[in-house]
């Protein structure tokens, strides 16, 4: 099995994965308990699917994944392309959202590993956000990285701007040593969060998190939280950008080429998301992570960004949206922003 593991590692590197590790399949008891406590506190907000899949998340042997699972191969792909889009004025997209959608790309990269495992008589299935699984817990157990106080997986040498893929297999591969937390006394991420979303280290109240609010949450965003969303149209990188592990130049630059920002984002600003109809949104969001939010949520987010801009030149488009957008949530949010900008002294 040592030879198979070495062959898999070599194949993973050829496929563009910057790190690979192996964890033995035994219950993730502590991680599953943390998930249940998190759900019990309601920190998942309206992500009902998190509660619905809680039982199977910590168990890769559940019938929907692989009952014969003995090992989890964890693969890390850095996505922090050095070039960030300067477009979207105003408005910002989280780094991972500026490039192409990663699911199909990473899924395809796992195929040769599964073929090799199957050639050795093993069963194998990939999981790239496509199955409920505790990816970060598996990554820590496989020695790839540790879960930082910002609740992200941090891979020393790569930082936290990484995407995780799992290959679950019936092969009993030699496991790697788990990695323990290496944050030390640092608390930069906890204090930098604009919406004070961390209730404790590694415990995020998603209901206050800009990533959740702008991507996952449908419906109106609580007005008290809107000013702290600032310029974020989709996602938020603040608790990762302040992390010292993301300051050093990573060694995974070669594998970030596939995640270069899409040119379309430099053509747009928040006003455009407020003007788009479903058809235009469909064109712009195709094959990008932004599609997940949908036209209505992106228009809602755009209205908030414009309302936070302190720039009254955005009032005409906001007034138009407050009157004419087909969605009531967008109309209400646009009116909130009209009121916010109108209340400003004439500064701009
Ligand atoms: S993503 Fe942004 S809002 Fe969410 S916890 Fe991190 S800093 Fe806070
Ligand atoms: S900013 Fe500091 S505390 Fe937060 S994850 Fe990074 S090292 Fe850990």
The helix/strand class is alpha+beta
Number of domains: 2
Q: What's the arrangement of strands in the largest beta sheet?
A: 1-2-7-4
Please give the number of β-strands: 10
Give start-end ranges of low-pLDDT stretches.
Answer: none
SSE pattern: HEHHHEEHEHEEEHEEHHEHHHHHH
Query: Helical segment tally?
Result: 15
Shape: elongated
- Mean model confidence by pLDDT: 92
Q: Please give the radius of gyration in angstroms.
A: 21 Å
Please sum up the structure shown.
By secondary structure, the chain is of the alpha+beta class. 38% of the residues lie in helices and 11% in strands. The protein folds into 2 domains: 2-80 and 96-169, NADH Oxidase (3-Layer(aba) Sandwich), CATH 3.40.109; 188-342, no CATH class.
Explained architecture:
α1 (2-14) packs antiparallel against α5, α13 packs parallel to α15 (328-342) and α14 (315-324) runs antiparallel to α15 (328-342). Helices cover 38% and strands 11% of the residues. By secondary structure, the protein is α+β, with helices and mostly antiparallel strands. The longest helix has 17 residues, at 103-119. It contains 15 helices and 10 strands. It has 2 domains: 2-80 and 96-169, 3-Layer(aba) Sandwich (NADH Oxidase); 188-342, no CATH class. The radius of gyration is 21 Å and the shape is elongated. It has a 4-stranded antiparallel β-sheet, sandwiched between helices. Strands 3-10 form a two-stranded parallel sheet. The chain has a two-stranded antiparallel ribbon with strand order 5-6. The model has no long low-confidence stretch (mean pLDDT 92). The chain binds iron/sulfur cluster (SF4) (2 copies). One iron/sulfur cluster binds next to α8 and α10. One iron/sulfur cluster binds at residues 193-195, 197, 204, 209-211, 236, 238-239.
């Amino acid at each position: 099995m040592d030879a198979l593991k070495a062959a898999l590692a070599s194949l993973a590197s050829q496929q563009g994965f910057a790190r690979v590790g192996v964890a033995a399949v035994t219950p993730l008891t502590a991680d599953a308990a943390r998930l249940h406590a998190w759900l019990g506190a309601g920190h998942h907000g309206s992500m009902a699917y998190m509660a619905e899949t809680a039982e199977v998340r910590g168990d890769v042997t559940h019938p929907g994944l692989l009952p014969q699972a003995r090992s989890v191969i964890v693969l890390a792909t850095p996505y922090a392309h050095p070039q960030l889009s300067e477009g979207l004025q105003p408005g910002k997209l989280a780094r991972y959202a500026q490039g192409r959608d990663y699911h199909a790309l990473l899924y395809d990269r796992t195929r040769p590993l599964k073929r090799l495992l199957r050639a050795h008589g093993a069963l194998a299935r990939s999981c790239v956000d496509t199955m409920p699984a505790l990816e970060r817990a598996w990554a820590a157990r496989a020695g790839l990285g540790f879960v930082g106080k910002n609740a992200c997986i941090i891979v020393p040498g790569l930082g936290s701007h990484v995407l995780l893929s799992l290959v679950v297999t019936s092969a009993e591969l030699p496991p790697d040593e788990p990695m323990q937390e290496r944050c030390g006394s640092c608390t930069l991420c906890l204090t930098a969060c604009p919406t004070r979303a961390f209730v404790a280290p590694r415990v995020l109240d998603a209901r206050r998190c800009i990533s959740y609010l702008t991507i996952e949450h449908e419906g109106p965003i609580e007005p008290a939280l809107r000013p702290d969303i600032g310029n974020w149209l989709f996602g938020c990188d603040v608790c990762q950008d302040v992390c010292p592990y993301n300051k050093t130049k990573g060694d995974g630059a070669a594998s970030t080429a596939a995640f270069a920002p899409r040119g379309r984002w430099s053509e747009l600003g928040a006003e455009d998301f407020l003007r788009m109809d479903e058809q235009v949104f469909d064109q712009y969001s195709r094959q990008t992570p932004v599609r997940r939010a949908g036209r209505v949520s992106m228009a809602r987010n755009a209205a908030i960004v414009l309302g936070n801009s302190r720039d009254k030149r955005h009032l005409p488009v906001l007034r138009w949206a407050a009157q004419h957008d087909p969605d009531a949530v967008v109309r209400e949010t646009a009116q909130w922003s009209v009121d916010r900008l109108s209340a400003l002294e004439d500064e701009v």
